[in-house]
Amino acid sequence: MTILVTGAAGFIGSHSAERLLSLGYEVICIDNFNSYYSTDLKKLNAKAVKEKGGTFVVMDLRNEEDYKKLPSDIDYIFHFAAQPGISSTSTFEDYFTNNVIATKNLIDYALSCNSLALFVNIGTSSIYGLEATFTEDVAPQPASHYGVTKLAAEQLVLQKSREQQLKACSLRLYSVIGPRERPEKMYTKLIANGLNNQACPLYQGSDKHLRSFTYVGDIVDGIVGVISNEEKVNGEVINLGTEVEHTTQDGIDAVAEVLGKEIKIDIVPKRAGDQFRTKANIDKARKLLNYNPQTSLLDSVKSQVAWYKENFL
Fold this sequence. Notes:
By secondary structure, the protein is of the alpha/beta class. It has helices at 11-22, 39-51, 92-112, 145-162, 186-195, 216-224, 230-233, 248-259, 283-289, 297-312, and strands at residues 2-6, 26-31, 55-58, 76-79, 118-124, 131-132, 168-173, 176-177, 200-203, 210-211, 214-215, 237-240, 246-247, 265-268, 277-278. The strands form 5 sheets. The chain has a 7-stranded parallel β-sheet with strand order 3-2-1-4-5-7-12, sandwiched between helices. It has a two-stranded parallel sheet with strand order 6-15. The protein has a two-stranded parallel sheet with strand order 8-11.
C-alpha cells in the first residue's frame, strides 16, 4: 500500500511518516522546505524519515505543474502541509495560498488517483475559535487567519466526501508537543532559553491559558488509526488530543523540573487570536478509533528535552 504524506519534513508530518513506514507501508513524502522556520531543522526531520525508507519529493502544492512528479496509484493521503500558527510575519496571502489553494490543488490530484481509499485532512483546534472545548458538531468561530483558512481547507475536503467523489475525513489536533516541535513554539523556546540561561518571551496573561498539551506520539496513534476504518470516518470531523488540561505555567514548571533550573520569563504584549482554552473532547475518537492518549505532560517534556540536547547542544 502506498501512502502520500504532505508536509512530511515538518513536526507532526515527519513523525507520522516514520510511523507509517514502521507499519510496513510505502510512503511518498512531500515538502517544499520553505523558510518559515529553519530549513536545517526540516532537513534533519527529513533525514530521519529517509533513514526509515521514506521517499521525498520536493514540490509546492500551490503549483499545479508540480503534481506531474507524483504517481497516480496512491491509497491514502495524509495532508499536513500548511502555513502554520499565528504569526505577525505571515500575510493573509500566505495563509490563503498555502492552506486553501494548495488544498484545492491536492484534492484535484486526489480525484485523479486510481485507488485512493481515504483523504485525511489534518485540521486544528484553532478552527473552534478562542475556546476549543467542544464536540465536533459545534459551529466553528475561528479568530485568526490561520483558523479561518484551515476551516476553509477542511470544508473543501469534506465537500468531496459529501458529493461522494472521494472518502475523506478531517482530524482536528490539539496543542501537540514533543521532539521536533517548531522553534517558535512554546516548549522549544522554553527549553532553548532555559539551557542558554536566557529569558523566554511569554505573551501577557498566557501563563493562565489552559491547554490540552498532547504528546506527538499520542497524536500519531490517532492519525494512523484511520487506516482501514475509512467507512467509519468518511465525512467525519474528529478531535485528537488529551482530555487533561494544563496551564501554560504548568508547562513552564515542567520544563524547569526536567532541566533542574529556573526558567526566566520576559512578558511581552498579548497577541490577537490566541486561544484562551483548549480541552479536547475525544468521545468520537474513542468510539471510532479506540483512541486513548496516555503520555503525561512531564514525560512529554522529558522526551522533548532529550531530543533538543541530542541535536542542538
